[in-house]
C-alpha cells in the first residue's frame, strides 16, 4: 500500500507538463519483483512514459519480467540488472527516482543518494521509503538491529536527511509513515496466517516469515524502528 503513497507524493513535486511528456521516465532503485513499478505503470495516464526497474538480484529480475509480461506492461517497464550505487544510466535520464525498502541495504547511503541525484533531471524528484531507527533507539540497539538483519547500518531520520544533503539534494523533507507501515505488516501477517491454514504440509518457511512480521510489529510498538518517506 505504501508505494501508492510515495508515488502520489512524488507526483506533487513534478510539474504536470513533465508527467504527461512522451519522454517521461521513472526509475525504481532496488525494484525487487517489480510490484511497485507495475502498480505505477498501471495507474498512470501517460502510456508513453517508461519505468525502469533496477535490481541487483537475477532471480528477482526473472520474476519481475514474468510479472511485467503477465500484466501486459512490457512496453512501459524495462527490467535492468544493476546496483543502485553504480547505476548503468547516463546523467539526468529520469524525471523521478524512487525506492521502497531497498536503500537500507546500501553499503554507502551517501553514494546511493548521489546516484539518485545524478540520475534525476532538473525539476525532477527522488522519494524513498525505508525503515529507520526509532526515536528511543539506543546506539547499541541500532548496531544489534544491523547485525541481526545483515545490513551495513540503520540510519536515524536526521542522519538520512543529512546524507541526502551531502549527496547534493537541497530541498529535503521527511514524513513519518510508521502507522501505515504497521497496517501493512498486519495485512501481510493476515495473508501469511491464511496461507498457513491452506499449506499445512509445507509451513516451515511460512512460519519463519510469520515470526519475522510479528517481530517487526513488536519493534514498531516498542519504538525501535519507524518508517520514513524522504
Automatic annotation (TrEMBL):
<keyword id="KW-0808">Transferase</keyword>
<dbReference type="InterPro" id="IPR013216">
    <property type="entry name" value="Methyltransf_11"/>
</dbReference>
<comment type="similarity">
    <text>Belongs to the class I-like SAM-binding methyltransferase superfamily. Erg6/SMT family.</text>
</comment>
<feature type="domain" description="Methyltransferase type 11">
    <location>
        <begin position="28"/>
        <end position="128"/>
    </location>
</feature>
<dbReference type="Pfam" id="PF08241">
    <property type="entry name" value="Methyltransf_11"/>
</dbReference>
<dbReference type="InterPro" id="IPR050447">
    <property type="entry name" value="Erg6_SMT_methyltransf"/>
</dbReference>
<protein>
    <recommendedName>
        <fullName>Methyltransferase type 11 domain-containing protein</fullName>
    </recommendedName>
</protein>
<dbReference type="InterPro" id="IPR029063">
    <property type="entry name" value="SAM-dependent_MTases_sf"/>
</dbReference>
<dbReference type="GO" id="GO:0016126">
    <property type="term" value="P:sterol biosynthetic process"/>
</dbReference>
<dbReference type="GO" id="GO:0003838">
    <property type="term" value="F:sterol 24-C-methyltransferase activity"/>
</dbReference>
<dbReference type="GO" id="GO:0005783">
    <property type="term" value="C:endoplasmic reticulum"/>
</dbReference>
Amino acid at each position: 500500500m505504501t508505494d501508492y503513497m510515495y508515488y502520489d507524493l512524488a507526483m506533487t513535486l513534478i510539474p504536470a507538463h513533465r508527467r504527461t511528456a512522451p519522454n517521461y521516465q521513472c526509475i525504481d532503485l532496488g525494484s525487487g519483483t517489480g510490484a511497485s513499478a507495475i502498480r505505477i505503470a498501471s495507474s498512470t495516464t501517460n502510456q508513453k512514459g517508461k519505468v525502469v526497474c533496477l535490481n541487483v538480484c537475477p532471480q528477482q529480475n526473472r520474476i519481475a519480467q514474468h510479472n511485467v509480461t503477465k500484466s501486459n506492461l512490457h512496453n512501459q517497464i524495462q527490467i535492468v540488472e544493476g546496483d543502485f550505487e553504480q547505476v548503468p544510466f547516463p546523467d539526468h535520464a529520469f524525471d523521478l527516482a524512487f525506492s521502497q525498502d531497498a536503500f537500507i541495504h546500501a553499503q554507502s547511503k551517501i553514494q546511493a543518494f548521489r546516484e539518485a541525484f545524478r540520475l534525476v533531471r532538473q525539476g525532477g524528484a527522488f522519494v524513498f521509503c525505508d525503515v529507520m531507527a526509532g526515536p528511543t533507539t539506543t546506539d547499541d540497539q541500532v548496531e544489534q538491529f544491523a547485525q541481526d538483519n545483515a545490513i551495513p547500518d540503520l540510519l536515524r531520520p536526521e542522519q538520512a536527511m543529512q546524507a541526502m544533503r551531502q549527496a547534493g539534494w537541497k530541498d529535503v523533507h521527511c514524513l513519518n509513515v510508521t502507522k501505515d507501515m504497521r497496517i501493512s505488516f498486519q495485512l501481510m501477517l493476515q495473508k501469511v496466517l491464511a496461507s498457513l491454514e491452506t499449506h499445512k504440509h509445507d509451513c516451515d518457511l511460512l512460519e519463519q516469515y510469520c515470526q519475522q512480521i510479528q517481530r517487526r510489529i513488536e519493534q514498531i510498538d516498542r519504538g525501535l524502528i519507524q518508517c520514513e518517506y524522504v
